[in-house]
Design a protein that fits this description.
Layout: E1 2-11, E2 16-22, H1 23-27, E3 44-50, E4 60-65, H2 67-95, H3 105-132, E5 138-144
Antiparallel strand pairs: 1-2, 1-4, 2-3, 4-5
Length: about 160
């Protein structure tokens, strides 16, 4: 399970909340964290979440996302283009009369075309999948309540709220 810490900045009556989470906590070891979330290099991210435990505004909470949902989406984004490239390369090789290595022009061209088509297919599947079944984090634990964290709440440096 992927987890990070954030502050509740808004709650709704429908069991949802809005949380400001620092990206560095969950992505600290990733070298591409600054390119995440559509290329925005913000230090914090305002995220809609499920709030089954009833956290209130100002609470410091733990957010959890099921690893299986993330892994399945990453597999589509990474593996479909690779399989497209391999299928294209083998198709090109067999068009040249076999995989003997004498002429690789078709293999390279078809491999590149297969990669591009696989990438386009993976983006389309990802967008459809995200619209139909979005991955929404869940508040799984209240770390500090508002009264216990009043001096370190969201207005103490994360740019949210005002004192």
């Amino acid at each position: 399970m992927a987890q990070t810490i954030g502050f509740v900045v808004e709650t709704g009556s429908d069991g949802r909340a809005t949380v400001v989470a620092e990206k560095g906590q969950g992505c600290g070891s990733c070298s591409t964290a600054s390119h995440c979330h559509g290329g925005r290099a913000a230090r914090t991210e305002k995220t809609p979440v499920f709030n089954p435990i009833g956290a209130t505004v100002g609470d410091r909470v733990t957010l959890t996302v099921a690893s299986g949902a993330l892994l399945a989406r990453m597999a589509v984004l990474y593996l479909v283009p690779v399989f497209g490239m391999l299928a294209g390369a083998f198709t090109g090789a067999f068009m040249d009369g076999g995989v003997d290595g004498t002429d690789s022009g078709h293999s390279i061209a078809f491999g590149l075309a297969g990669f591009v088509l696989g990438f386009a297919l993976s983006i389309a599947v990802s967008r459809i999948w995200s619209a139909a079944r979005p991955v929404t984090p869940v508040i799984t634990r209240i770390v500090n309540t508002r009264s216990a964290s009043s001096s370190i709440g969201p207005s103490a440096g994360s740019g949210c709220g005002a004192k």
